[in-house]
Design brief:
The complex is a heterodimer of chains A (294) and B (432). Chain A is built from 13 helices and two strands; from the N terminus they run H-E-E-H-H-H-H-H-H-H-H-H-H-H-H. Chain A has 294 residues and is an all-alpha fold. Chain A has one domain: MetI-like fold (Orthogonal Bundle), CATH 1.10.3720.10. A two-stranded antiparallel ribbon of chain A has the order 1-2. In chain A, a hairpin with a 6-residue loop joins strand 1 and strand 2. In chain A, helix 1 packs across helix 13, helix 4 crosses helix 7 and helix 5 runs parallel beside helix 11. Chain A is flat, with a radius of gyration of 24 Å. The N and C termini of chain A lie far apart (50 Å). With 432 residues, chain B is of the alpha/beta class. Chain B has two domains: 165 residues, 3-Layer(aba) Sandwich (D-Maltodextrin-Binding Protein, domain 2); 199 residues, 3-Layer(aba) Sandwich (D-Maltodextrin-Binding Protein, domain 2). Helices cover 46% and strands 12% of the residues of chain B. Chain B is built from 17 helices and twelve strands. In chain B, strands 2-1-3-12-6 form a five-stranded mixed sheet. In chain B, strands 10-7-11 form a three-stranded antiparallel sheet. The chains are: A mainly alpha (294), B alpha/beta (432). The interface between A and B is large, with 38 and 46 residues. Chain B: InterPro entries: Bact_solute-bd_prot1, SBP. Chain B: This is Extracellular solute-binding protein. Chain B: It comes from Aequitasia blattaphilus. Chain B: It holds the Pfam family SBP_bac_8.
Chain lengths: 294, 432
């Protein structure tokens, strides 16, 4: 006798067959290591000589001056850079979305291009641009603004500002592309109707573009927050965390603890989990604030 | 239906193959690296320098052991450290090569963190007494030798003779001097030629570490405790360093390229570093004959002060991942620890021996036209033998960063003893 499955059951089975391989891979490659890292974060010791220490790694990080400094630095980048970047990207996107603009394709590509460069090479280029005898100083001296070269990367504040400038240069175009694709989905007739009603350009931007782009803005905000909290390359390659840890990020410090100093992987794993918690919390806040769909 | 089941099975088997494939790969790699009985694998990083040296050593060893083969894998130091850490902390020691070259500064840290990863070479045929004492101490852990010394890191002071002349000095007047005299003469050079005497990396403590070591000091005491806040030698070193920066005799740059640039572009009139810096200086061919070498200045207020120190340099270590550690030890012992011929062959690349018998070789008496036609190699070997024994410590990189931070803050106007106290606390915190 043939057993017949119901249609619903068969559909379910097909669905599961498609999902299971990918799900298994994700579990094995991503979730298992996560759990292992979680277990690791409750251990401490040099290199391989690890022993369970309970929550002491989590207590330890709040007494660690350098780690606290790195949290402050990271949030400094986050608070200044993400809003500036997203607003700039939004403005650029709506300018480049104008129907009658010429060479649109060229401008879009040019602004998007920075994020296709390698993280390390752009950091090194920024470092040489802002060197004491670098391009920026040479221009400033030639223009008579400065007498001698200013050590941009040697001063805590200016070094932080340069990291922010570098981040803006690289990531604004990336976010702009998201907004552009969002803008394509807004019916032009909505703008026409607003224009007939006498809305100014700013009113159209504020009352039509922004509300309709909200899901996209939310997405980019979460992605940028996540990216900034995990910032590593710029701190590592542009400033080496200096001067005096003024620009070191959390990920950079975690790298130092794991690979530069006497390795303490338990403590490094615990700090990584703090980043995870921070990312999750901030994403939650942003979703609560930004998403009013239900 | 049948088709669906088959395709389902296919997908499942592919996933299975993928998953198990990952597991197999690491096993395969480990067998590959060990190879057959007479082949050794080596990780080191500089084709013009240490890779060339180990290949010369291979040729010499092959004369007596024709079967012997070496497989050299070019691995930059940062990558080597990361790979080493990863392999050792995941208990995959058999993925390591037979021999690794290790920076002396990182030697203690790696051997103590991963005591199961390295072979104790004390009881092998290698005669460690033939090497300079200050050099061997870098690779001794708990009285046991874990490394065969390779290149010399004896500190030399290089000066541009032509620039000094414009200020009315000669390099000879910088020999056996103190830092006070150095600063006084440096001010004159700066005034007359506009060029500082020295450049170094901001926030890095290379110059400080050289000053410290020249007086037999370090960031740690003999028991391995951090010795920063109450370190009288360090205090004098920091004061001298601040004086150097304030007087303009020392100029701080932000990265290594700028440092090398300051030498090659005539921004500065000299430098002080491990003797391996000669290779970088010689890349500016138009400056041939204008450089001269002498010893470094010494501290004024410390009784143990000398004009000699060690900076950089590396040693060969045998890993427990080796299938044939006896062969590896014998290879290193009869080449780097026993062959004058090897050191003669690699001298032209700037690899100066810490193996004392090599220094008596005729080759070392040769003159170098780039450095004023003097017998620089004899000089450097002489300096190396004078280097005081120092304690590097397991937590050297932690101390280096903490003191580097303190220095940056002190230059910006912070109080010396408060900053050193903070550095001490930071290092102690890291050591917990």
């Amino acid at each position: 006798m043939k057993r017949k499955m119901s249609i619903a059951k068969r559909h379910n089975l097909t669905g599961w067959t498609f999902i299971v391989p990918a799900a298994l891979l994700i579990v094995a490659m991503s979730f298992v290591p996560m759990v292992q890292a979680m277990i690791l974060s409750f251990q401490s010791g040099k290199g391989t000589a690890l022993s369970f220490v309970g929550l002491s790694n989590y207590v330890r990080m709040f007494k660690d001056g350098v780690f606290i400094q790195s949290i402050k630095n990271t949030f400094f980048y986050l608070i200044l850079q993400v809003p500036i970047m997203l607003v700039t990207a939004l403005i650029l996107a709506s300018v480049l979305n104008k129907k009658d603009l010429k060479f649109k394709g060229f401008f879009r590509t040019a602004i998007f291009l920075p994020c296709a460069t390698s993280l390390v090479s752009y950091a090194i280029i920024f470092r040489s641009l802002f060197a004491v005898d670098g391009f920026v100083n040479t221009v400033l001296i030639k223009l008579g603004i400065l007498n001698t070269g200013y050590n941009f990367l040697g001063n805590p504040t200016s070094a932080k500002v340069i990291i922010i400038i570098a981040l803006l240069w690289r990531w604004t175009g990336y976010n702009m592309v998201f907004y552009l694709s969002g803008l394509q989905n807004i019916e032009y007739s909505v703008y026409e109707a607003a224009m007939i009603d006498g809305a100014t350009a700013f009113q159209r931007f504020w009352s039509i573009t922004i509300p309709l782009l909200k899901p996209m803005i939310l997405l980019t905000a979460i992605m940028s927050t996540n990216g900034t909290l995990q910032l590593f390359d710029e701190s590592m390659n542009l400033t080496s965390g200096g001067p005096a840890n003024a620009t070191i990020t959390m990920s950079h410090y975690i790298y130092n603890v794991s690979f530069k100093y006497v390795p303490n992987f338990g403590y490094a794993a615990a700090m990584s989990f703090l980043i995870l918690v921070l990312v999750a919390l901030l994403a939650l806040v942003q979703m609560k604030v930004g998403d009013k769909r239900d | 239906m049948k088709k669906r089941i088959i395709s389902g099975l296919l997908v499942a088997s592919m996933a299975f193959a993928l998953l198990t494939g990952c597991g197999n790969k690491s096993e395969k790699e480990s067998t590959e690296s060990s190879g057959d009985e007479n082949t050794l694998t080596v990780w080191c990083w500089d084709p013009a320098f240490n890779i060339n040296a180990i290949q010369e050593a291979e040729k010499i060893y092959q004369k007596d052991n024709p079967e012997f083969q070496l497989e050299v894998v070019e691995t930059p130091w940062e990558d080597l450290q990361t790979k080493l850490t990863t392999a050792a902390s995941s208990n995959q020691i058999d993925t390591l090569p037979d021999i690794v070259l290790m920076q002396d500064d990182a030697f203690q840290k790696n051997v103590i963190s991963y005591s199961d990863a390295f072979v104790d070479l004390t009881d092998t045929a290698i005669d460690f007494s033939q090497f300079a004492e200050g050099k061997v101490s870098a690779s001794i852990v708990d009285g046991a030798n874990y490394g065969v010394p390779f290149d010399n890191g004896a500190v030399i002071a290089c000066y541009r003779e032509d620039i000094l002349e414009q200020a009315g000095f000669t390099t000879a007047e910088f020999e056996d001097i103190t830092w006070d005299q150095y600063i006084q003469q440096g001010k004159v050079v700066l005034e007359k030629t506009g060029k500082p005497l020295l450049s170094c990396l901001a926030g890095e403590t290379d110059v400080l570490a050289m000053m410290l070591r020249s007086a037999g000091g370090g960031f740690f005491d003999e028991e391995g405790n951090a010795l920063i806040a109450d370190n009288e030698i360090l205090k004098e070193v920091v004061e001298t360093y601040i004086e150097l920066v304030k007087s303009g005799v020392l100029i701080e740059v932000n990265d290594w390229d700028q440092y090398i640039g300051s030498l090659n572009n005539e921004t500065v009139a000299g430098t002080i570093n491990g003797c391996w810096i000669m290779a970088s200086i010689q890349t500016a061919e138009n400056q041939a004959g204008k450089w001269k070498i002498t010893n470094m200045p010494k501290l004024d207020g410390t009784s143990s002060a000398t004009n000699y120190a060690n900076q950089g340099g590396s040693s060969w270590a045998v890993t427990k991942g080796s299938k044939n550690p006896e062969l590896a030890a014998d290879f290193l012992g009869s080449t780097f620890g026993g062959s004058v011929e090897l050191y003669d062959n690699i001298l032209s690349t700037g690899a100066i021996a810490t193996y004392q018998p090599a220094a008596d070789s005729e080759k070392y008496a040769q003159t170098n036209d780039f450095f004023g036609g003097e017998e620089v190699y004899t000089k450097i070997v002489e300096y190396a033998s004078e280097v005081p024994d120092t304690i590097n410590g397991v937590y050297f990189y932690e101390a280096r960063d903490a003191v580097g931070t303190a220095i940056t803050n002190i230059i910006a106007g912070a109080d010396i003893s408060t900053e050193l106290k903070t550095a001490q606390e930071t290092v102690e915190f890291n050591m917990q």
